User: Which sequence fits this backbone?
């Protein structure tokens, strides 16, 4: 499937006439068009089926929840696999989102201005997360995006968003360390983010 001129592996429910807005997408869900356990997200007006979650992916996300929660307790809200609203046409569900602290815990989907950091854990979806999600996040001014590439055992750190993508991309490996830009005092070892070596 082509999305934004890029071949992507997840299957999309095609709408050849026009893109679907977030409001229409929500109405479709309310009307029962999707089953409760359907794994779909809205990307640039297209409903995209998300890849299945395997054990390695699940384990990594759980470890990240624990690491971020322990290190950033009461400084952010750690949100997991929940939608974020990006403009009128996209509502992705990143694996992990660090949100600005709010006492109401976001009664509605957070937007780009609320997001401190987005993290995607990629096992089989590396190309999609790099070629589709990264540009989408940059265009919507997500200030920092981390992509854990599990097959390559690297962390890609994307910063300086703009309409043409991220101006800074770093590939970090075991032995390196990284801190979210918003919390430079909170340093993570890349090996802790990637988890134990098999």
Assistant:
């Amino acid at each position: 499937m082509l999305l934004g001129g890029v071949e992507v592996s997840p299957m999309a429910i095609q709408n050849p006439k026009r893109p679907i807005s977030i409001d229409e997408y929500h109405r479709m869900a309310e009307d029962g068009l999707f089953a409760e356990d359907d794994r779909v997200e809205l990307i640039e007006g297209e409903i995209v089926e998300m890849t299945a979650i395997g054990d390695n992916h699940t384990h990594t996300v759980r470890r990240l929840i624990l690491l971020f929660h322990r290190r950033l307790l009461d400084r952010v809200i750690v949100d997991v696999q929940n939608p974020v609203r990006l403009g009128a046409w996209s509502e992705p569900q990143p694996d992990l989102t660090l949100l600005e602290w709010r006492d109401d815990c976001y009664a509605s989907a957070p937007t780009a201005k609320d997001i401190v950091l987005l993290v995607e854990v990629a096992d089989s979806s590396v190309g999609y997360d790099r070629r589709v999600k990264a540009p989408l996040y940059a265009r919507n001014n997500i200030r920092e995006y981390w992509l854990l590439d599990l097959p390559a055992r690297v962390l890609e750190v994307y910063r300086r968003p703009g309409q043409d993508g991220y101006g800074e991309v770093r590939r970090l490996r075991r032995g390196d360390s990284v801190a979210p830009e918003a919390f430079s005092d909170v340093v993570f070892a890349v090996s802790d983010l990637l988890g134990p070596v098999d």
Q: What stands out?
A: Confidence is low (pLDDT under 50) at residues 1-6. The chain has one domain: 53-194.
